[in-house]
């Protein structure tokens, strides 16, 4: 064994050494339909205005650690209830990590629970925070198995339950009554985290219900709204709970360029909302077109992506790659996703190119 291997074995946790890295595919030269991004940029005149705003940023100074100006815009424009505030993260990924670190008790093993399949960072963040993770399989139709969820909550007494709404990678909204039953079942010992990353496309939310439940946390990101490049997530909860979570947030975790870009974009949020409306319409068109292709099962989606099942997902994925179209092959994530692909909804032109390539791959 080499010296560096000995060093790694003696210093790095065994579960970290055994874990695979989070792989992001190189999309250079591809039509990129694998990451649920908004394909539209800001209009040209707004980009020029933003460039000037960014040019005036004092890069030599640390950010104002309270982030009061960008938080005020989020509170005013994105539906945060009166009397509630937000904390910010470097994308929702950091917020998930903050939640896990805050709830990872040192005197006993604490637990994160979530339906599965769902967003992979719930499990990864739980592991790296030293928490146990319990995944409760979805039913074959991709809906919540509420009795199984409630039984797992009763057995494991989780500190955190993550509920992706709509769920990634399935795209569906779990039944609201089932969500409420889970929130109530956690009352007194656990937090229910409703992850609304795709809220601009679902247009359904639990944000306005925060005052009903002391143990409810609502988390969102501006990534899917059209600002994936600035990496900004936010969450809201009861003020006393939010204050405790904010203790775990690293100081200066949001850089000044992200802060100014977010403030500017939220001043023009109507532009982003129109883009989301265009993508919702394109989602309906793409769903209908996919449903007309023989042998393709299309699942309902309230997100900016569509999950489909095909006879051979590996073959379809490879043929799309050969035509420079990149989608996400999720077939290995869980048995309920066997032979499934996830396709981001994009511009009419890119959707048409994908459909042509996909139809050819199924006919071959």
From TrEMBL:
SUPFAM superfamilies recorded: PLP-dependent transferases (SSF53383)
Pathway in which this enzyme or protein is active: Amino-acid biosynthesis; L-histidine biosynthesis; L-histidine from 5-phospho-alpha-D-ribose 1-diphosphate: step 7/9
GO MF entry, a single one: histidinol-phosphate transaminase activity
GO biological process, one term: L-histidine biosynthetic process
Cofactor requirements of the protein: pyridoxal 5'-phosphate
Residues recorded with modification N6-(pyridoxal phosphate)lysine: 224
Superkingdom of origin organism: Bacteria
Pfam families (UniProt xref): Aminotran_1_2
Reactions the enzyme catalyzes: L-histidinol phosphate + 2-oxoglutarate = 3-(imidazol-4-yl)-2-oxopropyl phosphate + L-glutamate
Alphabetically ordered keywords of this record: Amino-acid biosynthesis, Aminotransferase, Histidine biosynthesis, Pyridoxal phosphate, Transferase
Domain Aminotransferase class I/classII large: 30-357
EC number(s) given by UniProt: 2.6.1.9
Xref: HAMAP family: HisC_aminotrans_2 (MF_01023)
Family of this protein: Belongs to the class-II pyridoxal-phosphate-dependent aminotransferase family. Histidinol-phosphate aminotransferase subfamily.
Oligomer and partners: Homodimer.
Record-given protein name: Histidinol-phosphate aminotransferase
Lineage: Bacteria, Pseudomonadati, Pseudomonadota, Betaproteobacteria, Burkholderiales
Gene that this polypeptide is encoded by: hisC
């Amino acid at each position: 064994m080499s010296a560096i291997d000995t060093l790694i074995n003696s210093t790095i946790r065994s579960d970290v050494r055994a874990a695979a890295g989070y792989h992001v595919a190189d999309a250079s030269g591809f039509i990129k339909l694998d990451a649920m991004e908004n394909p539209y940029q800001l209009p040209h005149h707004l980009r020029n205005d933003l460039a000037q705003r960014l040019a005036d940023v004092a890069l030599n100074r640390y950010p104002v650690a309270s982030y009061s100006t960008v938080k005020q815009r989020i509170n005013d424009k994105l539906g945060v209830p009166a009397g509630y505030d937000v904390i910010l993260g470097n994308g929702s990924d950091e917020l998930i990590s903050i939640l896990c670190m805050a709830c990872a008790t040192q005197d006993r093993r604490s637990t994160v629970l979530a339906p599965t399949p769902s967003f992979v960072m719930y499990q990864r963040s739980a592991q790296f925070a030293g928490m146990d993770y319990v995944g409760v399989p979805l039913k074959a139709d991709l809906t919540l198995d509420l009795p199984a969820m409630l039984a797992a909550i009763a057995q494991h007494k989780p500190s955190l339950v993550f509920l992706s709404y709509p769920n990634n990678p399935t795209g569906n909204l779990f039944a609201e009554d089932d969500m409420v039953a889970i929130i109530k079942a956690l009352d007194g010992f656990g937090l229910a985290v409703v992850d609304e990353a795709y809220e601009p496309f679902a247009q359904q939310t639990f944000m306005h219900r925060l005052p009903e439940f002391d143990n409810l946390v609502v988390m969102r990101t501006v990534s899917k709204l059209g600002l994936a490049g600035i990496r900004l997530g936010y969450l809201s909860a009861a003020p006393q709970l939010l204050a405790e979570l904010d203790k775990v947030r690293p100081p200066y975790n949001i850089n000044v360029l992200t802060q100014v870009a977010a403030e500017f974009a939220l001043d023009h949020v109507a532009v982003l909302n129109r883009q989301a409306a265009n993508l919702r319409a394109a989602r309906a068109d793409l769903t209908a077109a996919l449903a007309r292709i023989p042998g393709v099962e299309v699942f309902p989606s309230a997100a900016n992506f569509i999950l489909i099942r095909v006879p051979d997902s590996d073959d379809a994925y490879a043929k799309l790659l050969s035509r420079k179209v990149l989608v996400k092959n999720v077939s290995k994530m869980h048995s309920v996703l066997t032979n499934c692909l996830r396709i981001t909804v994009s511009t009419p032109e890119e959707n048409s190119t994908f459909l042509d390539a996909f139809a050819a791959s199924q006919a071959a």
